[in-house]
Amino acid sequence: MTRTAIVAISRNGAALGRKLAKRLANDPTLYLDRRFLDEEDNAIAFDLPARPLVQRVFQESDQLVLFMPVGVTVRLLAPCLDHKHRDPAVVCVD
Question: Where do the TM regions start and end (predicted)?
Answer without folding.
Answer: none
